[in-house]
Amino acid sequence: MKQQKHMIALIAVFLALSAAGTAFGQGQFRTIGSIAFSYYSDQRYGLDWEDVFIAPLPAGFYLVAAASGVNTSFSDQTGGRLGLAFDLPGAYYGESSYALKYDWRENSFLHTAYLSASYESEPALASISLTGEFSASSMGGVLSPALRYTVVPELTLSTTLFVAFHHYEPDEQFFNVAVLGSGEYALAPGILLALGGTFSTVYEPTNQYEKWSILGGITVKPSALLSLKSQLEYANAMKAEINPHEIVSIRLVADVKFRSKD
Asked: Which of these, 231, 239, 203, lies nearest to 215 by C-alpha position?
């Protein structure tokens, strides 16, 4: 169970990256499906998936609905998410949602509230999000400010900070700080290459250590209505005093729009 807690910060990183791909204000029906498989050097494995559906509503609002699951050798959760995204005056937009998951191994529910606000101009995107997680035996939250800037039309740089705190009954405290940095370069029209990495610190009552990862991927956009992305990541947590390990994971994402922009 502790190994699952160790991954909270990086799981938050992936969730934030998925959410960043759901920019609003396009007036389109949209579905974003993702699936990731992870293999641990201590012979554990992980599988998580999510399917997000976005539908435009009147007055600049968007319905956001999602189904997701985490099925691993140490966790088994299934749930859904429902929320609203909204356009704000100027170049601002945001999202508010609630997710409910059931943990089949712990026989308990996990509640998650999510709130984000973003500003997007021609070269830059700045955003901040707050996630709160609650269950019968735990509570916590993740604060994530992010910045993305297009240096030249072919190159975009981005960075995200993640600060996570969780309390587990009766007296376990977990504190994670993670930084994600990445760059995306257009190799050709519709083909983007990404390279980046993460660095995080984990603070636990009996186990404090640093971990890092390297990630790379490629995005192919055959049309304005379809985007396909693959991402490979290597994570190193060998400095952990308890159960040191390495992780290799691959994530596939399909972003499909059902109607061209008005």
From this structure: 231
Tens place of pLDDT per residue across the chain (262 aa) = 443 444 444 444 444 444 444 445 456 788 999 999 999 888 888 898 999 999 989 888 899 999 999 888 777 899 999 999 988 777 888 999 999 999 998 888 999 999 999 998 889 999 999 999 898 888 889 899 999 999 999 999 999 999 988 887 777 778 889 999 999 999 999 999 999 999 999 887 778 889 999 999 999 999 988 999 999 999 998 998 888 889 999 999 999 988 655 5
DSSP states of the chain as a string?
-HHHHHTHHHHHHHHHHHHHT----S---EEEEEEEEEEETTS-EEEEEEEEEEEE-GGGEEEEEEEEEEEESS-EEEEEEEEEEEE-STTEEEEEEEEEEEETTTTEEEEEEEEEEEEE-SSEEEEEEEEEEEESSEEEEEEEEEEEEEEETTEEEEEEEEEEEEEETTTEEEEEEEEEEEEEEEEETTEEEEEEEEEEEEE-SS-EEEEEEEEEEEEEEEETTEEEEEEEEEEEETT-SSS-EEEEEEEEEEEEESS---
CATH topology of domain 2-257: Porin (2.40.160)
Tokens linked to 152: 């030249």
